[in-house]
Amino acid sequence: MRLRPVEESDLPAMIAIHGNPATHTHNPAGTPDAAACAASLNAWRAHWDAHGFGYWAAALHEDPHAVIGFGGVALKSIRGLPSLNLYFRFAPEMWGRGLATELAGAALKAAFASLPHDVVYGITRPENLGSIRTLTRAGMERVGEVQTDVGPPSVLFSIHRDALQIDS
């Protein structure tokens, strides 16, 4: 898989993936519209500009211009503290191929290799078994619950840099 910083030209893929109700089945806020997708993409690009890291656009090697998902690590307030958050979302036709786990592993390795943070968190809904499997396969452990913007508490996962084997 090819991973690169998000770009303005990713907006159609962002709308196609994030605007697809199937990718928001467990989101109590519902599916974002095109304007919300554009706002998120702009915020992600601003995060890259401000911090030098953030969420990536993902593509397969055989078709590097077709964005199939988004994800990576970015700063997020978790329990009132600035923290690294692992995020991933792929087009439904890409589900079940291990791509989210591959992206999660790459994001964790990149974060611990280049950032001073000792912990990365992942947040998902308790009924989102696919995301729970991905976080677990990436080496993360459930550490409790956290209240997010909307709805009931979400499940909080974390991994400490010492728990991840990074090849030199």
The CATH topology, please? Aminopeptidase
Stretches where pLDDT is under 50 for at least 5 consecutive residues are: none
What is the count of helical runs?
4
Tally of extended strands?
Answer: 7
CATH 4th-level superfamily: Gcn5-related N-acetyltransferase (GNAT)
Topology:
Blueprint: E1 2-5, H1 11-18, H2 34-51, E2 55-60, E3 63-78, E4 81-90, H3 99-114, E5 119-124, H4 129-137, E6 141-146, E7 154-160
Parallel strand pairs: 4-5
Antiparallel strand pairs: 1-2, 2-3, 3-4, 5-7, 6-7
Helix pairs in contact: 1-2
Molecular structure report:
- The protein has one domain: Aminopeptidase (3-Layer(aba) Sandwich).
- The protein is built from four helices and seven strands.
- The radius of gyration is 15 Å and the shape is globular.
- Strand 2 and strand 3 form a beta hairpin.
- It has 168 residues and is an alpha+beta fold.
Brief write-up:
With 168 residues, the chain is of the alpha+beta class.
What structural keywords apply?
168 residues, alpha+beta, Aminopeptidase, seven-stranded mixed β-sheet, 4 helices, globular
